[in-house]
Structures are given as structure tokens and as C-alpha cells.
Amino acid sequence: MKHLKKGEFYGQTNKTICFDGITLTDTVYTHPKVEWHYHEHAYFTFILQGNVMEGNKKEIYNCSPGSLLFHNWQEAHYNIKPEGFTRGFHLEIEKQWFDDFALSIEGLQGSTKILDPSIKLLMYKIFRDSKLENNQSDLSTQTILLELLYKLQNNTDDVLFKNPKWVVIIDEILHEQFAENLTLDYLSKIADIHPVHLSRDFSKYFDCNLGEYIRKLKVEKALSLMALQKQSFTEIAYQCGFSDQSHFNRCFKEMNGVNPSEHAKILFQK
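The structure assignment produced for this chain is given below.
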């Protein structure tokens, strides 16, 4: 079985950045199929454009723009890429980096598909920072990565200790219906929980209030649609449940620190 070293991925790597135990690569996938292999270090795969199917010994993930996977080191997997352009952003983390920050990822074994919009938005920030030519990008990446791993570890701990049933139900509803005009009464009835309880305890499990979580889901969906280059910003805004493009622009910048056109310029720059 092929063992890939630091910064080594199948395809055409357009850019590699290495610093302090972290390696960032921007890679175009060129192989229709990649047989079973594993990587030397733990890493994230973030699909920027196109589609790819990734399988391991337990699951198969169908990944589209905005899909985020975490792999612990030496986790064997394979890839199948359909026709068309596919591009991924990878963030590798050496074991020494975890040791230097006294971080344990024992709870992050195997491969995991990450759905939390907060974590995905942080990965988009790391990607954009990697495209900036300044002396602070390394510090920014490490700071964001620490926050990202903290959230990921907490999410894993929540699964291990089993969140209340209503938390799972609410999260599924919000991921499926975030673009609709949801009400507290509607959500509380479906989850069979009192509206006051839902409103009061939501932040305990989602690390933000209900309204902010919905906005994150909307913006994260908008980011994935922008990668397809098939719709205008106005069309994307309405599809994601924003009242108008102005509202979309404000919310997008609040979550990302840049407006939609700035993000698109960074994403599609050569």
C-alpha cells in the first residue's frame, strides 16, 4: 500500500506552504481513481471545487464543494473522481505540533466527515489566509487551527457522551431547512421540547445562539454554491434564504471577514 509523505498528494499541487509542523497544499485532482493508500500525518481535506468520492474501511463519503474530512495518520482510504475539475485544500499536522501544544486527538480516530458550519467557516479562513502574502499568515493559521481543533474535539466528546435527542433532531432539521422561514414554535414542536428550553439551552450544545447558527448554515451553503460558478450572488442569496443581496452581503462579511466578491476573487485566482 502506498505511503504518502508530508505534502504528497495525488494530482497537481499548485502551491505548498510549510511552517512549524503544518503543511498546506492546494491540489487539483487529476486521477480518475486512486487505490488504497495512507498518509504520514493527520490531515484535513477540504473540497474547494468539483466532486470526489472517498472511501475507507467503514464508510464512503461523497464530497462536493465545501465538504470537509479529517483523517488521523495512517488511516487507509481510496478516491474516485468523476469527470470534471476537482480541487482540494489540504492541511497536514505533524505529531510534534500536537505535542508542542499539549493536544490530544485520541478521540479523533479514523476518518470523519465534518458537518459543523462553524468548523467549515474556520477552514475557509485558513484557506484565504494561505493566499495572502504577509508575515502574519503563519500565526493566523495556527490560531485558527487551534480554535478549529477545539471545536472538533468538543463535537467528538458530545457524540461520545450522547447529546440529548432533541439536539440531534434540531441539528438535522436546521441542516435540511435552514433556508426556510423557521420559527421557534415549529422547531420546538418537532423536537418535542419547550420553546424556552430550546432557546435557553441551544448555545450549550451549538456554541452560539439559534439565529447565529442558522446564519452560519446559510453562509456555508452560499460558499459551496459560489464554487460552482453557475449562479449570481443574488440568486445564491435567495436560494440560501436571505431576504435580499444586501442582507446576504452583510451576513457573509460578518462570518468571513470578506465580502462575497472578495472571497470569489481569492478562490478563483490563478
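Interim note for the steering committee: The mean pLDDT is 91. The radius of gyration is 19 Å.
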